[in-house]
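User: Teach me something about this protein's shape.
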Amino acid sequence: MTGKCGVCTAMLLLMAAFTVTAPSRAQNFPVKPVRLVAPYPPGSSADVMGRLYAPKLGEICGQQFIVDNRPGATGNIAGDLVAHAAPDGYTLLLLNTGLVSSQPLYKDLTFDVGRDFQAIANLGTAPQMLVVNAASPFKTVQELIAFAKANPGKLAYASTGNGATTHLTMVLFNLQTGTSMLHVPYKGSSITVPELIGGRVDLLFGSVTSLLPHVRSGRMRALGVSSAQRSTLVPDVPTIIESGLPRFEAYTWTTLAGPAGTPRNAVRVLNAAVAKSVQSPEFAAALANQSTEPMLMTPEQTAQFIRDEIVKWRKVVLAAGVKSE
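Assistant: First, the predicted structure itself:
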Protein backbone atom coordinates (compact mmCIF):
# COMPACT_ATOMS: atom_id res chain seq x y z
CA MET A 1 0.00 0.00 0.00
CA THR A 2 2.81 2.35 1.01
CA GLY A 3 4.61 1.62 -2.27
CA LYS A 4 1.54 2.50 -4.31
CA CYS A 5 1.05 5.76 -2.40
CA GLY A 6 4.72 6.59 -2.93
CA VAL A 7 4.33 6.12 -6.69
CA CYS A 8 1.15 8.25 -6.70
CA THR A 9 2.87 10.99 -4.73
CA ALA A 10 5.83 10.99 -7.12
CA MET A 11 3.50 11.25 -10.13
CA LEU A 12 1.59 14.13 -8.54
CA LEU A 13 4.83 15.96 -7.81
CA LEU A 14 5.98 15.42 -11.41
CA MET A 15 2.68 16.75 -12.78
CA ALA A 16 2.86 19.76 -10.49
CA ALA A 17 6.39 20.47 -11.63
CA PHE A 18 5.30 20.29 -15.27
CA THR A 19 2.43 22.71 -14.73
CA VAL A 20 4.90 25.21 -13.29
CA THR A 21 7.70 24.79 -15.83
CA ALA A 22 5.68 24.39 -19.05
CA PRO A 23 4.14 27.89 -19.03
CA SER A 24 7.49 29.33 -18.01
CA ARG A 25 9.12 27.73 -21.09
CA ALA A 26 6.39 29.20 -23.33
CA GLN A 27 6.82 32.62 -21.75
CA ASN A 28 10.56 32.56 -22.50
CA PHE A 29 9.93 32.31 -26.27
CA PRO A 30 12.12 32.18 -28.26
CA VAL A 31 14.78 29.97 -26.73
CA LYS A 32 16.31 28.76 -30.03
CA PRO A 33 16.64 29.99 -33.65
CA VAL A 34 13.45 30.73 -35.59
CA ARG A 35 13.07 29.71 -39.24
CA LEU A 36 11.34 32.05 -41.69
CA VAL A 37 10.25 29.98 -44.70
CA ALA A 38 10.15 32.00 -47.94
CA PRO A 39 7.87 30.53 -50.63
CA TYR A 40 9.91 31.95 -53.52
CA PRO A 41 13.58 32.14 -54.56
CA PRO A 42 16.16 34.64 -53.26
CA GLY A 43 15.38 38.14 -54.51
CA SER A 44 11.60 37.65 -54.47
CA SER A 45 9.51 40.12 -52.48
CA ALA A 46 8.86 37.68 -49.62
CA ASP A 47 12.56 36.76 -49.49
CA VAL A 48 13.61 40.42 -49.42
CA MET A 49 11.16 41.18 -46.62
CA GLY A 50 12.35 38.17 -44.65
CA ARG A 51 15.99 39.20 -44.97
CA LEU A 52 15.18 42.76 -43.95
CA TYR A 53 13.29 41.69 -40.84
CA ALA A 54 15.39 38.68 -39.79
CA PRO A 55 18.34 40.54 -38.22
CA LYS A 56 16.07 43.09 -36.54
CA LEU A 57 13.80 40.43 -35.06
CA GLY A 58 16.88 38.53 -33.92
CA GLU A 59 18.23 41.64 -32.20
CA ILE A 60 14.93 42.28 -30.41
CA CYS A 61 14.18 38.64 -29.48
CA GLY A 62 17.73 37.56 -28.65
CA GLN A 63 17.69 34.59 -31.02
CA GLN A 64 18.71 34.10 -34.64
CA PHE A 65 16.03 34.35 -37.33
CA ILE A 66 17.00 32.39 -40.45
CA VAL A 67 15.40 32.74 -43.91
CA ASP A 68 14.86 29.36 -45.55
CA ASN A 69 13.90 29.53 -49.25
CA ARG A 70 11.55 26.75 -50.35
CA PRO A 71 10.38 27.79 -53.84
CA GLY A 72 8.12 25.83 -56.13
CA ALA A 73 4.47 25.27 -57.10
CA THR A 74 3.63 28.98 -56.80
CA GLY A 75 4.58 28.95 -53.13
CA ASN A 76 2.67 25.81 -52.23
CA ILE A 77 5.75 23.78 -51.26
CA ALA A 78 6.57 26.29 -48.53
CA GLY A 79 2.92 26.54 -47.54
CA ASP A 80 2.65 22.79 -47.09
CA LEU A 81 5.88 22.67 -45.07
CA VAL A 82 4.76 25.29 -42.55
CA ALA A 83 1.12 24.18 -42.37
CA HIS A 84 2.31 20.75 -41.21
CA ALA A 85 5.18 21.92 -39.02
CA ALA A 86 5.08 21.72 -35.23
CA PRO A 87 2.96 24.65 -34.00
CA ASP A 88 5.60 25.92 -31.58
CA GLY A 89 6.50 29.29 -33.12
CA TYR A 90 9.87 28.18 -34.49
CA THR A 91 8.82 27.49 -38.10
CA LEU A 92 7.07 30.48 -39.65
CA LEU A 93 5.88 31.36 -43.15
CA LEU A 94 6.52 34.57 -45.05
CA LEU A 95 2.96 34.43 -46.32
CA ASN A 96 2.42 36.84 -49.19
CA THR A 97 0.07 37.89 -51.96
CA GLY A 98 1.16 35.25 -54.45
CA LEU A 99 0.45 32.35 -52.12
CA VAL A 100 -3.02 33.67 -51.31
CA SER A 101 -4.01 34.65 -54.85
CA SER A 102 -2.93 31.29 -56.30
CA GLN A 103 -5.03 29.23 -53.85
CA PRO A 104 -8.13 29.01 -56.10
CA LEU A 105 -5.99 27.67 -58.96
CA TYR A 106 -5.12 24.41 -57.23
CA LYS A 107 -7.72 21.78 -56.38
CA ASP A 108 -5.53 19.24 -54.58
CA LEU A 109 -3.72 21.37 -52.02
CA THR A 110 -2.81 19.77 -48.71
CA PHE A 111 -3.49 22.98 -46.79
CA ASP A 112 -5.85 25.96 -46.71
CA VAL A 113 -4.45 29.45 -46.12
CA GLY A 114 -7.55 30.63 -44.27
CA ARG A 115 -7.68 27.58 -41.98
CA ASP A 116 -4.21 26.15 -41.46
CA PHE A 117 -2.19 29.21 -40.44
CA GLN A 118 -2.05 31.43 -37.40
CA ALA A 119 -1.69 35.05 -38.52
CA ILE A 120 0.97 36.92 -36.54
CA ALA A 121 1.78 40.30 -38.10
CA ASN A 122 1.73 42.26 -41.33
CA LEU A 123 5.30 43.07 -42.37
CA GLY A 124 4.44 45.60 -45.07
CA THR A 125 2.74 46.35 -48.37
CA ALA A 126 4.16 47.57 -51.66
CA PRO A 127 2.50 48.74 -54.88
CA GLN A 128 3.17 47.39 -58.34
CA MET A 129 4.02 49.60 -61.27
CA LEU A 130 2.54 49.38 -64.75
CA VAL A 131 5.26 49.91 -67.39
CA VAL A 132 5.60 49.86 -71.16
CA ASN A 133 8.58 49.81 -73.48
CA ALA A 134 10.24 53.21 -73.92
CA ALA A 135 9.31 53.18 -77.62
CA SER A 136 5.63 52.55 -76.83
CA PRO A 137 3.16 55.16 -78.11
CA PHE A 138 1.31 55.11 -74.78
CA LYS A 139 2.07 57.98 -72.41
CA THR A 140 -0.85 57.46 -70.02
CA VAL A 141 -3.06 54.69 -68.67
CA GLN A 142 -6.03 56.26 -70.48
CA GLU A 143 -4.26 56.00 -73.85
CA LEU A 144 -3.41 52.37 -73.15
CA ILE A 145 -7.02 51.53 -72.23
CA ALA A 146 -8.42 53.30 -75.29
CA PHE A 147 -6.14 51.34 -77.63
CA ALA A 148 -6.76 48.03 -75.88
CA LYS A 149 -10.53 48.49 -76.12
CA ALA A 150 -10.32 49.29 -79.83
CA ASN A 151 -7.92 46.42 -80.51
CA PRO A 152 -8.85 43.36 -78.40
CA GLY A 153 -6.03 40.82 -78.10
CA LYS A 154 -3.49 42.96 -79.93
CA LEU A 155 -1.45 43.96 -76.88
CA ALA A 156 0.62 41.32 -75.06
CA TYR A 157 1.56 41.52 -71.41
CA ALA A 158 4.21 39.55 -69.56
CA SER A 159 3.89 37.96 -66.14
CA THR A 160 6.03 35.80 -63.90
CA GLY A 161 3.65 32.86 -64.34
CA ASN A 162 0.00 31.79 -64.28
CA GLY A 163 -1.54 32.80 -60.96
CA ALA A 164 1.41 35.01 -60.00
CA THR A 165 0.63 38.43 -58.56
CA THR A 166 1.91 40.08 -61.74
CA HIS A 167 -0.55 38.01 -63.74
CA LEU A 168 -3.61 38.48 -61.53
CA THR A 169 -3.02 42.22 -61.18
CA MET A 170 -3.28 42.53 -64.95
CA VAL A 171 -6.36 40.29 -64.92
CA LEU A 172 -7.89 42.70 -62.39
CA PHE A 173 -6.94 45.59 -64.68
CA ASN A 174 -8.59 43.90 -67.68
CA LEU A 175 -11.74 43.15 -65.68
CA GLN A 176 -12.11 46.72 -64.49
CA THR A 177 -11.37 48.30 -67.88
CA GLY A 178 -13.27 45.83 -70.04
CA THR A 179 -10.15 45.12 -72.08
CA SER A 180 -8.65 41.91 -73.42
CA MET A 181 -4.90 41.42 -73.80
CA LEU A 182 -2.72 38.43 -74.57
CA HIS A 183 -1.05 36.88 -71.52
CA VAL A 184 2.54 35.69 -71.98
CA PRO A 185 3.76 33.90 -68.82
CA TYR A 186 7.47 33.54 -68.06
CA LYS A 187 9.44 31.95 -65.25
CA GLY A 188 10.46 35.04 -63.31
CA SER A 189 11.16 38.76 -63.67
CA SER A 190 14.70 38.04 -64.86
CA ILE A 191 13.03 37.07 -68.16
CA THR A 192 10.04 39.41 -68.28
CA VAL A 193 12.11 42.60 -68.02
CA PRO A 194 14.38 41.83 -71.01
CA GLU A 195 11.33 40.72 -72.99
CA LEU A 196 9.67 44.10 -72.43
CA ILE A 197 12.84 46.08 -73.11
CA GLY A 198 13.35 44.07 -76.29
CA GLY A 199 9.82 44.86 -77.46
CA ARG A 200 8.61 41.25 -77.53
CA VAL A 201 5.77 42.14 -75.12
CA ASP A 202 3.99 45.47 -74.72
CA LEU A 203 3.50 45.95 -71.00
CA LEU A 204 3.70 44.38 -67.54
CA PHE A 205 3.15 44.94 -63.85
CA GLY A 206 6.13 44.55 -61.50
CA SER A 207 7.60 45.85 -58.28
CA VAL A 208 8.57 49.50 -58.17
CA THR A 209 12.05 48.77 -56.87
CA SER A 210 12.90 46.19 -59.55
CA LEU A 211 11.56 48.30 -62.44
CA LEU A 212 12.72 51.74 -61.29
CA PRO A 213 16.33 51.42 -62.61
CA HIS A 214 14.98 50.65 -66.09
CA VAL A 215 12.55 53.58 -65.93
CA ARG A 216 15.33 55.93 -64.84
CA SER A 217 17.62 54.65 -67.60
CA GLY A 218 14.96 55.42 -70.21
CA ARG A 219 14.40 51.81 -71.29
CA MET A 220 10.87 51.71 -69.85
CA ARG A 221 8.07 54.20 -69.26
CA ALA A 222 5.99 54.07 -66.08
CA LEU A 223 2.27 54.68 -66.56
CA GLY A 224 0.88 54.13 -63.08
CA VAL A 225 1.18 52.53 -59.66
CA SER A 226 -1.38 50.16 -58.17
CA SER A 227 -1.63 51.72 -54.69
CA ALA A 228 -4.20 54.17 -53.37
CA GLN A 229 -1.47 56.80 -52.90
CA ARG A 230 1.54 57.58 -55.05
CA SER A 231 4.79 55.83 -54.26
CA THR A 232 7.44 57.93 -52.54
CA LEU A 233 10.02 56.36 -54.88
CA VAL A 234 8.20 57.58 -58.00
CA PRO A 235 6.10 60.55 -56.85
CA ASP A 236 5.63 61.78 -60.42
CA VAL A 237 3.92 58.56 -61.50
CA PRO A 238 0.13 58.76 -60.96
CA THR A 239 -1.88 56.04 -59.31
CA ILE A 240 -4.12 53.98 -61.56
CA ILE A 241 -6.99 55.24 -59.41
CA GLU A 242 -6.09 58.79 -60.49
CA SER A 243 -6.12 57.56 -64.08
CA GLY A 244 -9.83 56.80 -63.96
CA LEU A 245 -10.17 53.42 -62.19
CA PRO A 246 -11.50 54.34 -58.71
CA ARG A 247 -11.62 50.74 -57.42
CA PHE A 248 -8.21 49.61 -58.62
CA GLU A 249 -5.87 48.62 -55.80
CA ALA A 250 -3.38 45.77 -55.82
CA TYR A 251 -0.45 45.28 -53.50
CA THR A 252 2.41 42.94 -52.95
CA TRP A 253 2.25 42.30 -49.22
CA THR A 254 3.99 39.98 -46.80
CA THR A 255 2.72 38.73 -43.47
CA LEU A 256 4.23 36.52 -40.81
CA ALA A 257 2.26 33.36 -40.07
CA GLY A 258 2.76 30.14 -38.15
CA PRO A 259 0.95 26.80 -38.23
CA ALA A 260 -2.54 26.84 -36.74
CA GLY A 261 -2.24 26.36 -33.00
CA THR A 262 0.94 28.42 -32.58
CA PRO A 263 1.08 29.41 -28.88
CA ARG A 264 -0.50 32.74 -28.05
CA ASN A 265 2.58 33.94 -26.22
CA ALA A 266 4.80 33.27 -29.23
CA VAL A 267 2.33 35.18 -31.41
CA ARG A 268 2.32 38.07 -28.94
CA VAL A 269 6.13 38.21 -28.72
CA LEU A 270 6.56 38.11 -32.50
CA ASN A 271 3.87 40.71 -33.17
CA ALA A 272 5.46 43.07 -30.64
CA ALA A 273 8.90 42.50 -32.19
CA VAL A 274 7.59 43.45 -35.65
CA ALA A 275 6.03 46.61 -34.21
CA LYS A 276 9.27 47.51 -32.47
CA SER A 277 11.28 46.89 -35.65
CA VAL A 278 9.47 49.55 -37.67
CA GLN A 279 9.98 52.14 -34.93
CA SER A 280 13.66 52.28 -35.92
CA PRO A 281 14.21 55.17 -38.41
CA GLU A 282 16.96 53.17 -40.15
CA PHE A 283 14.68 50.17 -40.56
CA ALA A 284 11.78 52.32 -41.78
CA ALA A 285 14.15 53.84 -44.37
CA ALA A 286 15.19 50.34 -45.49
CA LEU A 287 11.53 49.45 -46.03
CA ALA A 288 10.95 52.70 -47.94
CA ASN A 289 13.85 51.82 -50.24
CA GLN A 290 11.83 48.74 -51.19
CA SER A 291 8.77 50.96 -51.80
CA THR A 292 7.22 49.19 -48.82
CA GLU A 293 4.99 50.76 -46.19
CA PRO A 294 4.79 49.16 -42.75
CA MET A 295 1.26 48.16 -41.85
CA LEU A 296 1.07 47.56 -38.11
CA MET A 297 -1.76 45.20 -37.20
CA THR A 298 -2.74 42.99 -34.32
CA PRO A 299 -2.78 39.24 -35.05
CA GLU A 300 -6.58 39.44 -35.32
CA GLN A 301 -6.40 42.33 -37.80
CA THR A 302 -3.75 40.47 -39.80
CA ALA A 303 -6.01 37.42 -39.98
CA GLN A 304 -8.91 39.55 -41.25
CA PHE A 305 -6.62 41.23 -43.80
CA ILE A 306 -5.62 37.81 -45.16
CA ARG A 307 -9.26 36.67 -45.31
CA ASP A 308 -10.21 39.80 -47.25
CA GLU A 309 -7.39 39.22 -49.73
CA ILE A 310 -8.45 35.59 -50.20
CA VAL A 311 -11.97 36.73 -51.10
CA LYS A 312 -10.71 39.49 -53.42
CA TRP A 313 -8.36 37.33 -55.46
CA ARG A 314 -10.70 34.35 -55.57
CA LYS A 315 -13.26 36.58 -57.30
CA VAL A 316 -10.62 37.67 -59.82
CA VAL A 317 -9.53 34.11 -60.58
CA LEU A 318 -13.09 32.83 -60.98
CA ALA A 319 -14.32 35.82 -62.98
CA ALA A 320 -11.46 35.56 -65.46
CA GLY A 321 -11.37 31.76 -65.60
CA VAL A 322 -7.65 31.71 -64.77
CA LYS A 323 -6.13 28.21 -64.88
CA SER A 324 -2.94 26.87 -63.31
CA GLU A 325 -0.11 25.77 -65.57
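Now, about its shape. The longest strand covers residues 117-133. The domain at 34-125+252-320 is CATH 3.40.190.150 (D-Maltodextrin-Binding Protein; domain 2). If you'd like, I can walk through any region in more detail.
User: That's plenty for now, thanks!
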